[in-house]
Amino acid sequence: MASGNSSTFSVIGPDITIKGDIGASADLHVDGSIEGDIKCASLVQGESSHVSGGITAETARLAGHVTGSITAKELVILKSAKIEGDVHYDALTIEQGAQVDGRFAPNARRQAKNVTSTPNAKDASGDQAQLHIAT
Q1: Using an 8 Å Cβ cutoff, are 45 and 28 in contact?
Q2: Helix, strand or coil for residue 83?
Q3: What percent of the chain has pLDDT over 90?
Q4: Does residue 92 have a pLDDT over 60?
């Protein structure tokens, strides 16, 4: 990284098991096992990784096993991934072969449920959810 760049990158190796929630303001790469919720800027999950808990990230690239809900603005689910839980996204890409057992909902729909009903409630968000199926 350039010396003026203040971003950091943390790695949880394959031999690490964490029981508890993780909060990171930077990017996080997980190859180990986590029993708890993850909140971070960007998450990359390795194929051998297992997360039992919710994931909240700006961007997430998942290749391992996740048991819990996922909320991300940009989400990529790779073919090696196995997801058991609901998925909330703005932009979603799923590789052929990925396994997902849960419901998909764009973040805009989830946020609309939290807004008090007004005649223009649906127009409050100009964002459009996107779904991409990778082949």
Answers
A1: no
A2: strand
A3: 70
A4: yes
